[in-house]
Structures are given as structure tokens and as C-alpha cells.
Predict the 3D structure of the following.
Amino acid sequence: VQLVESGGGLVQAGGSLRVSCAASGFTLDYYAIGWFRQAPGKEREGVSCISLSDGSTFYADSVKGRFTISRDNAKNTMYLQMNSLKHEDTAVYYCNARGSGMRGPFDYWGQGTQVTVAS
């Protein structure tokens, strides 16, 4: 069971980047999914997520209108499209899948992918 991220890198401010997260060993359809990020010296913060119950999407105020979360169930992959990137978006981005079991909720995490926005 794992989540494998790809697509991070270096981009100029104002540019775009898409990060992907491919799931293996489990079916992403049955999980709530989300993206988090952690900048140097800061705590990990939620960026965006998709509710499992009704597919609603949520975004942190700092990325609203610029980032788009999506999932492709056929490819068992989730994405985060990032547009109009700012220097303050620089962070390691982590994908997350949350499921529910007999013992309560549990999480799978990706290994993280570095996104660096040059100002």
C-alpha cells in the first residue's frame, strides 16, 4: 500500500505546476483525499481535499481560486493543479488518503514532493 507523488519542481512566480499522486495496493475511490504542504520551519497545513461523502472540494484561503484538486479513479490517481504560483507556495507537498475502519479513521501519506517557486 503506497502513495507515490510526482511532478514537483522549480517554477517561476506566476507559473503553473501539476503534482500527481498515484495509489497502489488500494482503491482510491473509497477514500477521502487531500493535499497538505509543509514549508521550512512551519507546521504541515491542509491545502485542499475532496469529501468522500459527496465529492465536495475544499481549499485553504491562501490557494482558493489558484489551485484545483481532482481525482481520476480509472488511473487510481489524484492531482493538484497549481496556477499563479507565489513564492509563499514553496513547500514540500504531501498527498493523503483517509479511510475508515473498525478502529476509526486511518491515513495513507505520500513521500512528499518539493515545489519551489522562484520570486
User: Anything to note?
Assistant: The longest strand covers residues 91-101. The mean pLDDT is 96.
